[in-house]
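Researcher: Going back to the complex we discussed earlier. I've cleaned up the inputs and rechecked each line, so this should be the final set. Can you rerun the prediction on the complete assembly and write out the structure?
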Amino acid sequence: MHLFLLIGLVAFTILAVLARDLLKAAIALAGASIFLAIIFFRMGGYYVSVFEITIVAGLITVLFIATVNMTRHQEQDVVESKWPRIIFPLFFLLFLVVDFLVMKKLLGTIPALQSAETGTFGEILWGKRSFDLIGQIGVIFAGVLSVLALFRKRSKHD
Amino acid sequence: MGFLEFLIILIVLPMMVAGVMPLIGRLSRRLVPDLIGNVTFFALFVYVIFVAKRLLGSNPAIVQQASWFNTPLNLSLMLDGFSLLMLLTVNMITFAVALYSIDYMEHYGAKANFYALLMLMVAGMNGLILTQDLFTMYVFLEVAAIASYALVAFGLEHDGLEAALKYLLLSAVASVLVLIAIAILFGTVGSLQFGDLAAAAQAPEMRGVIIFCSVLFLVGFGVKAAIVPFHAWLPDAHPSAPAPISAMLSGVLIKVSGVYAMFRIFYSVIGLTPSLTQIILWLGVISMFVGALTALGQTDMKRMLAYSSISQIGYVIIGLGLGTPLGVIGGLFHLFNHAIFKSLLFLNSGSVQYATGTRDLHLMGGLAKRMPITAATSAVGSLSIAGVPPLNGFWSKVIIIIALFQAKMHLVAWLAVIASVVTLWYYLILQRHAFFGKLNEAWSGIKEAPFWMSLSTILLGLLCIAVGLLFPLMINSWLKPAAEALTGPIQVALNFFGL
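Model: Rerun complete. Updated structure for the full complex:
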C-alpha cells in the first residue's frame, strides 16, 4: 500500500512539473498533495495530514485555479524551451540511480530513530515550539506584505 | 530582569512595527513611515551596542528564557560573542540603509510597505542569530528570505521581477536541502537543540549521517552565501534591487543566512572535520578568484559590486574555514568590514544611478566634479575593500593572510594576495570610469545626492576609517569574544599583534 501511495505521489508531482496547461498542473499538484496527506495519516501524523488536505490540496489549489482562470484571457503563445522536458526526466533517473546506490546504504548506517518530542498537538505547538510560532507569524506577515508591495498600483503621488 | 533586558525585543519590536506599518502608510505616505522606520532601526542598533553587549558582559554565552505573564515559555535565546558581532553588523548596517532610504525610496512609492518588509528581514535575521534550535533557525531564515524576495522586486521593473524569481527558485532549493538535513538530524537524534545535536554528533555510528548532512548544509547555505559554484542568483538579484536593498543583501543577508548559519552549525553543532575544512577552504579560494576575475570584466557598476561580493565572501570563508584562532578572527573581521564598505559602495552606486539614471560605467565620467561627497566616500570604500592601509579592509585581509602563512598554506596565502591586487585593479577602473577624468557633457546639470543619502554614506565612510585606525579596540571588544565563541581561548593568536 505504501509503495502504491509513493508511486502515486511521485507520478502526480512529475505531472505537475511537466504539464503544459497551468490548470492541469494545479490539479496534479492537488492530487500529489492528497497522496502525501494519506501517507502522513498512515504514518500517524494526523494533524499534518489534516493541514496538508485543507491548506495545500484545498485552499492553495483554489487560489491557483482562481488565479489561472483570471489570467487566461491574457495568455499568449510563447515558445517554450524544450530543455526542461529533457533535463527533468534525466535528473529524475539520475536521482533514482543515486537513491538506489547510496540511500539504502546510508539509511542502514542511521541509528534507530530516537523518541522525538512527545505531547499533544497543542502542547508541542504552544509549549515546546513557541519560538517557531513567532517565526511563523513573521512568515505570514512577510507573505502578506510581499503581496501588498508587489501588487500595488503606483499612485500619482508616487 | 527588567523588560528591556529581554533579547526577544530584537525580534518582536521590528515585527510589531512591521505589522502596523501598512496602517501608518494610509495616514502618511512619507514623513511618519520615515520617522517610525528610522527611530525603530536606530533603537535596535543602540540596543545591541548598549544592552546586549552589557548583558553578555564577560560571559562566554548567556541563555535567556522568555515568559508570558510569569508563565515560562519554551522560548530560549542564546547570545555569545559570535551572535553579538552579527547582531551589531545587521542592526548597524540596517540603520545606515534606513537613513539612506528616506530620500532614495521617494520615487518608488509605498514607503510604509518598504520599511515593513525591511523590518521583517531584520527580525528574521535577528531571530536566526539568537536561536539555539535548528528548526527555529530555518523558520527565521525563511522570514528573512521571503521579505528579501519582495524587496528585490520592489521596483516592479522587469529586471527586478525576473531576478527575484530566479533568486526565489534557487533559494527555495537551498532551503529544501537545509530542511532535509534538519529532518534527518531530528529523526536520528530526536532533538533540534544545538547542544543535544553536538553531543550526539560525537557518536561513531553518527559518522555517515553527519557527512551526509554536512554536504546538504554546505550546498544549502552555500547558495545563500553565494559561494562559487552556488552563486548564480546573486549577480542578477543584487544589481536589480533598489540600492538600499542591494546594500542589505550584499552587506548583511548573505552573511547571516549563509555564512553565519553555516559556520554556527559547523562549529557549534556538527564539528569542523579536516576534510570539511579543506573543502570549505578551496571553495573560498575559488569564490575569491572567480568573483574577482568576473568583476574585472563588468561595465555595469552594481554588477561589478555584486561579483566583488562573491570574491570578498571567499576571503571570509577562507578565514573561518581555516579554523585556526587567527584565521577565525580575520574571517570575522573581514565579514564585519565587508558589511560596511560593500553597503557603502552599493549606496554610492545608488546615488550615481539616482543622479544619472544609468549604471553603465562607460556612460559616466568626471562625476566627482558634480558629486564630491559620493566620489570621496566611494574612494574610501574602494580603497578599504582593496585592502589599502590603514583602512579597515587592510587589517582583516592581512590577518587572514598571516593566518594562512602560519597554517603553512603558502599557496592559498599568495592567491589571497593576488586576488587583493585584482580587487584594487577593478576598483580603480570603477573609480576612473565613474568619478575621474573629464565630466561627460550629459551630466553637467546633475547634483550631489540629497542630504540623507549623503549623510548615510559619510557615516559609513567614516566608519571604514575609524575601524581601520582603532582596530585593536574593535578586536578586543567585539572580535575576540566572537572568535572565542567559535574556537575557545585565542590569546596566543592575538599576541602576534601585541593585543
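Model: Worth noting: Residues 1-71+84-108 of chain A form one domain.
Researcher: Good, that matches what I expected from the previous run.
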